[in-house]
Amino acid sequence: MxxxxxxxxxxxxxxxxAACGNSVDDGADASTTDTAVEAPAEDEADEAAEVEAPAEPxxxxxxxxxxxxxxxxxxxxxFKAAVDAWCAETGNTVADTSATSxxxxxxxxxxxxxxxxxxxxxxxxxxxxxNSFIEAGKVVSLDEIRAEYPDFASNMNDDLIADSxxxxxxxxxxxxxxxxxxFCNMEVLxxxxxxxxxxxxxxxxxxxxxxxxxxxxxxxxxxxxGNIPHYWWEFAIFNNQSPANHLEIPSVEEDxxxxxxxxxxxxxxxxxxxxxxxxxxxxxxxxxxxxEGKAAFLIDGSWKVGGIxxxxxxxxxxxxxxxxxxxxxxxxxxxxxxxxxxxxDLIGGLSMGYYITKKAWDDPDKRAAAVSFVSYMTSDEIIPxxxxxxxxxxxxxxxxDETKFNSLQIKAMKMMSGTTxxxxxxQDLFQGDCRVTTFDGMPEIVTxxxxxxxxxxxxxxxxxxxx
Length: 467
Prior knowledge:
- By secondary structure, the protein is α/β, with parallel strands linked by helices.
- The chain folds into 2 domains: 2-21 and 59-177 and 350-398, Periplasmic binding protein-like II (D-Maltodextrin-Binding Protein, domain 2, 3-Layer(aba) Sandwich); 178-348 and 408-465, D-Maltodextrin-Binding Protein, domain 2.
- The chain is built from 19 helices and 10 strands.
- It has helices at 2-12, 45-52, 76-90, 103-114, 131-135, 142-148, 186-192, 203-215, 230-238, 256-270, 283-291, 304-311, 324-327, 358-361, 364-377, 383-387, 407-417, 442-446, 452-465; strands at 62-66, 93-96, 121-125, 178-185, 219-221, 295-301, 330-333, 345-349, 352-356, 421-423.
- The strands form 2 sheets. Strands 4, 5, 6, 7, 8 and 10 form a 6-stranded mixed sheet that branches. A 4-stranded mixed sheet has the order 2-1-3-9.
- β1, α3 and β2 form a beta-alpha-beta unit.
């Protein structure tokens, strides 16, 4: 089985780490042996049959599993290969209802819990998005699972498993973490005479470089402020705070750091460093500007590595068509710092993980299968396939073979080795209608139609009114 899994994953992985997986023995499947034994005496037969008869193997079950490993997610193929391997090993089957992560997906998951249609196993966010089904008692905590399966997730550093915002318990077993950093199109930077930003890069340095890039006829920043301002919103606020207090949502009266962040974005807009159509363009359009050599900088997450690699392939679905020379033009580095935030202080963490639902836990057959499935997907052998150049909660992460990674992934590993801190995204705590005035309202802020002070105050007031 180990050899078969290696073949499955190797065939499925798109320019990612090759690894092998071991089966997870959680005691779910008892088996018989073919060893001959002496028959008991006739008068002892009934007692011997009762005491010594082997347990019947558990009947195969179908698990309903929902994850975000779908669509363009770089781990979609890895997930399918690992699922196939687990099914082949256990005899169980998986009904996979995975979908790309977006607000629609989040709403669907929440609705499924509310209507009793939740899956048996769910790979989902561990922040505020999960509050409602945790409050409703619809998922099982790590402590409860370990009471019956003591070795469950024992390969994890518990300190890196997120606590629920509801009750402080741990529910989601993480696989791969994330980081948010600044991708660079070196073809554009070189043409403008700009060097790759380093560990001590500041906003003043950044603005000077942006001006050089603009003067050379390129767009400095690839961003659709009218569509996805999220990453600039996050780092602009972070630049006016620090890792120590970034996750503290200010009161309406103490919103100066958030206001300063919005005004910093407004300044970059007024300087002409965003695309001319930044207020009407989609995120896909500005990303294409970056990959096509029309824009220099892109702030995004670790998941964007796969998108950049795909953009360097003549066939986005065929990894063998990659243009290595084109990929070599891309790099990733730190987001320019300001004040108490160093450039090497990044947004990141382990924001998602596997949940076992109460529905599966209360089903004796599915309970064992769900534990087996999550244990398999979070094993020391499988996690590196998914984590690749990001982060994990493994106690003993295996040594990786860098020859299995593409050039951008290797650059990401080098960048991450110099990171001084990872802080979660405050926007994950600041959800719903409260974000409208500064997310959807970013065009009004940067054009001066609404002041940053008013937009931030209204958003914070909405947030506290909902508490």
